[in-house]
Amino acid sequence: MLEIIDIHKTFNAGTINEKRALQGVSLHLKPGDFVTVIGGNGAGKSTLMNSVSGAYPVDEGKILIDGVDVTHLPEHKRAQYIGRVFQDPMMGTAATMQIEENLALAARRGKIRTLRTGITKKERALYKEQLATLGLGLEDRMTAKVGLLSGGQRQALTLLMATLQKPKLLLLDEHTAALDPKTAAKVLETTQRIVERDNLTTLMITHNMRDAITYGNRLIMMYDGRIVVDVSGEEKKKLTVEQLLSLFSKASGSDEVNDKLLLS
After folding, report:
1. Does 241 map to a domain?
2. Counted domains in the chain
3. What does the pLDDT read at residue 184?
4. Domain ranges, residue 6
5. What per-residue string of b and e applies to 82-97 under the rule 16 or more CB within 10 Å gives b?
6. Could you tell me which of 23, 52, 20, 31 has the C-alpha nearest to residue 205?
7. Which H or E run contains 39?
8. What pLDDT, in 10s, does the model give residues 106-136?
9. CA-CA distance, 100 to 103, in Å (whole number)?
C-alpha cells in the first residue's frame, strides 16, 4: 500500500546549516499494516511523514501509494489518498464551523461541489452514528462550534474526519503529544479501534516507547535520517522498552537516546 524507495532529503544543502534529514530510507507497508515510528529529535521522523504527504519534495527516490507513483505530485493532489492527523489539536478542523459542518467538509473531500442542500438528513444521521462511536457525547452536540471543544475532543473529531472516506494511507503525526495522559490514552484506543475496523494502512509517529510497542503490528526506529530498527509480528509483541533500547544501541552504534524519548 505504501512503497518508499531509497528517498533522500537535505535541507540548506551546500551551506553551514546543511542537514541531511533522510539518507536512503526505504519502507514497504502492506495493506492493513499499522506501523509505529519512534526516534529522538532530528532522527527524521517528521521529515519522513512530510515527504510521504507531499509537504516536502524529496531530492531522490520514489514514493508510491497503492501502486501510484506520487513522488512528484503536490500535497493537495496526494490528499485523495491520504488522511492525516497533526500533533496540534487546532489543526485539521475549522474552529468557527459546527461539528457537523466539519464532518461534511471531510466527507466531500475530492468531490465536485454543487448547490444542493449543505447537509442532508441521511448525512446527518451518518455523522451522528459515527460520532457516537467516539464515546464522547459529541453526537448530541453536532451544531456546536468546534472551537468550543477540548483538545482531546478536537483530536478525536479530526481522527474521525481523516478516516471518514477510508484513505489508502493514514498518517498520525504525534497526534496525542499535546494531550494529557488520560486523554491521550482515550484517543489512542479510538485510533486502534478505527484502524482495525476499517483495516487502514497506518503510519504513526510517537515519542512514547511504550505506545510504540503497544500499538500496531510493526515498529521502526529512526536515527540520523535512517531506519535502524524494524521489528514486527511476535518479536514486536514480546518487546520491552529495555530490549528496544538495546536494539537501538546495537543498530545505530550509539548510546545516544533523546531525553524526551526516555521521559516518555
Report:
1. yes
2. 1
3. 85
4. 2-81+167-263
5. bbbbbbbbeebbeeee
6. 52
7. strand 34-39
8. 887 766 665 555 778 888 888 898 888 888 8
9. 5
At residue 256, the pLDDT reads 61
Residue 119 forms part of a structural domain = no
- Cell 459546527, located at residue: 98
The Cα-based distances of 155 to 88, 116, 161 in angstroms read: 8, 29, 10
pTM of the model: 0.88
| Residue 50 in domain | yes
Q: Which three cell numbers stand for residue 78?
A: 496526494
Predicted local distance difference test score (pLDDT) of residue 65: 96
User: Could you tell me the three cell numbers for 252?
Assistant: 545505530
Q: Give the C-alpha separation, 98 to 146, whole Å.
A: 6
With cell 493514514, the residue in question is: 170
| Helix (H/G/I), strand (E/B), else coil: 67 | coil
In a domain, 175, yes or no: yes
**Cell numbers at residue 7, please?**
528517498
The pLDDT tens digits for 31-68 are: 999 999 998 888 899 999 999 999 999 999 999 999 99
Given strand 82-85, what is the order of strands in its sheet?
Answer: 82-85, 169-173, 202-205, 34-39, 218-223, 226-232
